[in-house]
Write a structure and sequence with these properties.
Pfam families: BPD_transp_1. This protein has eleven helices and no strands. It is mainly α. The chain has one domain: MetI-like (MetI-like fold, Orthogonal Bundle), CATH 1.10.3720.
């Protein structure tokens, strides 16, 4: 069992979720409430990571974040380190790859909120920020929770993009999925099986817990209405 790789994967998942979920709430809310030209194209762009092979996404990220690119060169000038083969680059890549897993559940949750509820809250004198915090967020919480668990679990098991952009650097970019691959390559099937079982149990437990909590929160919201 490669504990260092597991801890790095948990760290990567945590950073990704903390940065992505607030962004997904803003994007999901905007897509649910507003109609604008090019909305279908934006939604399609968000869903692209679901259909493209991870190696293709990894290649474009490698090119887009490399030292020869504008973003990669700017990051090296400002922070003195490159984005490729670096943990910070993996965080950026994980955010991009997991956007559909975060935005879709939150957008669908916002679409279930009746317009009358927001209008009634506004008629009661509530500000937009208070409506967002006191009315909308509690009602879309099941969607936010689903997005959080999906993103965390997906990042934990991500392989293709991590390998393409980060390589296999112990303590820096070697995640649990890379460790499993290395163990199989070395014919260490006991270690590979143990790490695979950990990911499997976590995924099943997380999804079961999310489903249960979403039902409870959904029922609570329905009661409050």
């Amino acid at each position: 069992m490669d504990w260092q790789a597991l801890l790095l994967s948990v760290k990567l998942s945590s950073f990704t979720v903390l940065l992505l979920i607030p962004l997904a709430i803003i994007i999901g809310r905007g897509l649910a409430y507003f109609q604008f030209r090019g909305k279908s194209w934006l939604e399609a762009l968000i869903l692209v990571p679901l259909v493209l092979p991870p190696t293709v996404i990894g290649y474009y990220l490698l090119v887009g974040l490399g030292n020869q690119s504008f973003i990669g060169g700017l990051a090296e000038q400002l922070f003195g380190q490159q984005l490729v083969f670096n943990f910070s680059g993996l965080v950026i890549a994980s955010i991009i790859v997991n956007i559909p897993f975060a935005v879709q559940p939150i957008q669908r949750a916002y679409e279930t909120i009746p317009i009358d509820i927001r209008d009634a809250a506004a008629c009661c004198g509530m500000s937009r920020m208070r409506i967002f915090l006191k009315v909308e967020l509690p009602m879309v919480w099941p969607g936010v929770l689903t997005a959080l668990v999906l993103c965390f679990s997906h990042v934990l098991g991500e392989f293709g993009v991590v390998l393409m952009l980060g390589g296999n650097i112990a303590g820096e970019t070697k995640t649990i999925s890379i460790a499993i691959y290395d163990s199989v390559q070395a014919f260490d099937f006991d270690s590979a099986g143990m790490m695979s079982l950990v990911l499997l149990l976590f995924a099943v437990s997380a999804l079961a817990l999310t489903t249960s909590m979403s039902r409870r929160l959904g029922g609570l919201n329905a009661t409050q209405r």
